[in-house]
Design brief:
The complex is a heterodimer of chains A (854) and B (135). Chain A is an alpha/beta fold. Chain A folds into eight domains: 4-115 and 247-309, FAD/NAD(P)-binding domain, CATH 3.50.50; 118-243, FAD/NAD(P)-binding domain (3-Layer(bba) Sandwich), CATH 3.50.50; 321-416, FAD/NAD-linked reductase, C-terminal dimerisation domain (Enolase-like, domain 1, 2-Layer Sandwich); 417-477, Arc Repressor Mutant, subunit A, CATH 1.10.10; 485-537; 553-630 and 795-812, Alpha-Beta Complex (Sulfite Reductase Hemoprotein, domain 2); 636-793, Sulfite Reductase Hemoprotein, domain 1 (2-Layer Sandwich), CATH 3.30.413; 824-854. Chain A contains 26 helices and 38 strands. The longest helix of chain A is centred in the C-terminal third of the chain and has 18 residues, at 729-746. In chain B, 0% of the residues lie in helices and 39% in strands. In chain B, the strands form four sheets. In chain B, strands 2-3-4-10 form a four-stranded antiparallel sheet, with no helix packed on it. In chain B, strands 1-12-11 form a three-stranded antiparallel sheet, with no helix packed on it. In chain B, strands 7-8-9 form a three-stranded antiparallel sheet, with no helix packed on it. Chain B starts with 31 loop residues before the first strand and ends with a strand. The chains are: A alpha/beta (854), B mainly beta (135). The interface between A and B is large, with 39 and 39 residues. Chain A: Residues 635-758 form the Nitrite/sulphite reductase 4Fe-4S domain. Chain A: Residues 5-296 form the FAD/NAD(P)-binding domain. Chain A: Keywords: 2Fe-2S, 4Fe-4S, FAD, Flavoprotein, Heme, Iron, Iron-sulfur, Metal-binding, Nitrate assimilation, Oxidoreductase. Chain A: Homodimer which associates with NirD.
Amino acid sequence: MHQQRLVVVGNGMVGHRFVQELLALHPDLPAAGLAVTVLGEEPRPAYDRVHLSSFFSGTSADELSLVEPGFYQRPGLRLRLNARVASIERRNNTLQLADGEVLAYDKLVLATGSYPFVPPVPGRERDACHVYRTIEDLEAMQASGARSASGVVVGGGLLGLECAKALRDMGLRTHVVEFAPRLMVAQVDDGGGRILRRKIEDLGVQVHTERNTAEITDGATARHRMVFADGSWLETDMIVFSAGIRARDELARRCLLAVGPRGGVVIDDHCRSSDADIYAIGECASWNEQVFGLVAPGYDMARVAARHIGGGADAAFAGADMSTKLKLMGVDVASIGDAQGRTRGALSCVFTDEIKQIYKKLVVSADRKRLLGAVLVGDAAEYGTLLQMMLNGIALPEAPEQLILPAADGAAKAGLGVDALPDGAVLCSCNNVSKGQLCAAVADGARTIGELKSATRAGTSCGGCVPLVTQVLNAELKRQGVEVTNHLCEHFPHSRQELYHLVRVGGIRSFAELLHRHGTGRGCDICKPVAASILASCWNDFILNQDQARLQDSNDYFLGNIQKDGSYSAVPRVAAGEITPEQLIAIGRIAKKYDLYTKITGGQRIDLFGAQVHQLPLIWRELVDAGFESGHAYGKSLRTVKSCVGSTWCRYGVQDSVGMAIRLENRYKGLRSPHKIKFGVSGCTRECAEAQGKDVGVIATERGWNLYVCGNGGMKPRHAELLASDLDEATLVRMIDRFLMFYIRTADRLQRTSTWRDNLEGGLDYLKAVILEDSLGLGAELEAEMAHVVGSYACEWKKAIEDPALLRRMRTFVNSDAADDNIVFVRERGQIRPATAAEKLQCFKGIAVVAETA
Amino acid sequence: MTVMTAPAPAAAVAAPIPTAVPAASPAAGPVWQPVCAVEDIWPDTGVCALLGGRQIAVFRLADGGLHAIDNHDPNSGANVLWRGIVGDLGGEPVVASPIYKHHYRLRDGGCIENPDTPLATHAVELRDGIVWVEA
């Protein structure tokens, strides 16, 4: 069999993709009769030029590499680096390398890319003047940057702004000089350009538009002086030219291949040049007189050429959508289709928010039925939806402006369901992956976004399609019935919210009844504590009666917080953090007596650690005798109401925050809820109690109290939102009653108010309507439910020590008065702490040694 | 191993709990020892018995079934299993460790999340209202 010699000139992103496509078609090259030689002029194999600027924020050249180790070490494939082609001899199908070596080809693929255009300005070759294309360029920029204080980028296009980010990352005073009247002239319109400019300038990059550089000379205060055509000038230590690209077509020109009017090797739909043995792909090619400076069309050409060379006569390139979405220095910019509205009769619809610096424009067809293009600056969340609408000609909704108007706070955005997309819709344009291919991959077993990415390559280049790809994944999983249901666990086919409703409406007062009527099996450690919490929220019976004790988590069962060694800590309630000297002394005395480790908590109270089960009732007894109650630190319930000292002492306070905090804590103590609840009360706007980081925050005003809700510190901090202002105390309490009971009624298991609020359909406006305006007519009901809980409060420690049957359960061993010898303490900073495993071993060994010598 | 025993006839008088546990000779292997009255274990909960220095968690299910497994949770290093929530997963009775929520099967001591850490199980019997464990 005749071996076909295939030579690929260029090992950039597109040249490498061509080899990948070829291997996908012919995994065994020699068996397919192919001998492939790849020539790369740079010293390293293909790397990711799209994310080149990340090199300056710490990504290494190796991390940018697109070539898996060993990729080019396979039979029939050879990669030669530092190999520059000097000429192509079409008469005898050979090419000559710069070192004189001659290679013969049967088919030749040009993937030579482009070079940065440098305007012919006198002085452009001075020291510390750069271009931005290769890793070597970046290394040179880095070297100049190290001895510069300022830098200028010539060119305010997409690459120019990337480059400005690189300079800024190097800590230089950065300027962008643009010939056109606005930034990103090809992608955005005047309105978008204005917002973009302001955002870029806010990031500390100075923008100079309508500047035509005439000359670069010596500077007085910096290395260079750039003199502009209008006579003005700018001094800078380094300059980077990023004024567009030009196709690398010099080899083609010299061997008399046809080139386009604006450069580039002319190719047909099969990516063939005017010589049937020579193909051209990527930025060096000109299709329909267009050179595509984006990677997606280049990848598409690579696919077409690989197929066509392999005999796929119908493989054809059909042009490319030039829509782009990128994040420039943290600013989202997207341009879709006919962004400038050049189509005849096109209508536009613009939303500008100069405060939030957001600009969005839709370009709509004359008949108002189709989306032609869009510009998004500052927020490009709708990119995926709009792009698909444009590409697939999906009919515009009744009020197309809704597509770009900000959603009312929290309300669901009028989006495009992925179901509306045809199977042929290309969701990942970088890698040409259609919705149909994604669905097929899910059908073949992809279950996570990661699996879907590796199966299809979708979302692995620019990542802009990942939200849509995720939607397809979820929709397909749902269709296959794999979706995660909101069922609590295998024992109850209901969500927590549904169970709450069933318990309350059905008057269910025990777990046995709930299980019998609505569940199966025996229950588990998921549904039992949920049921216990719901029963407590509704009826507030003692949580350790014989029916409910078995439902409680260890913390609730032992009215303490279990620690890693199985011992417990106990926290007496110190409402609002106000504590008398007598109480402090009592806590100190008890801690000393039982040798407990004491620590002040974040909630302004004192935690006592290191009690074994059998010690707990003794400690509770002493604390109760000293006037303390349980602090419910163990419960999914109200924890603390943190307060600042307020107007009583503080010279700035406007209300008595401590008094208010004590009253609130005593009102809601013991209230069981889907998760723990924390309050804060501040006596003035200085907010020393950090109430805005709490589930319920109350801040004093001159005229009353402001109520904030759904804040959180911890793992995912969230600022609380203002629900109502200047409330009097009675109204404040009523609103909190309603808020808490509404949360308890509707939240999921272990869902804090912050995530509950984030998932609440209708958002803050809805919450305000329900709580303040009683839009659901639930107000009185919620208040009555709270009144029942408040009225039936009892200290759980006190109940426990008065119950002999329960006390019998509070023993470390049912048949012995011994303690658990696995709980071992050592002393540190004057207090006990759990021994480490090594310390325990030593301690046991020590005893053994003594025993032996005795 | 688990033994289900029918409740003692109502007429039978519960024997007093023996206070002196016969000392087990190590060479003699496990011996049957009384632990507590069955009412001392509330249904669907556990207690911990100290038998010859060994901690054994004894559970009583709502249907009367009794199970005994080691009390030591190897996944947390704490002696806590008697304090776990009792339930079932796929019909198999389990206890969830209160520390990191590992589930152990009551029938054979297997750990669902970490098969490398099975627990020893012990024979249990109900004799005249008294729970006996072989350990």
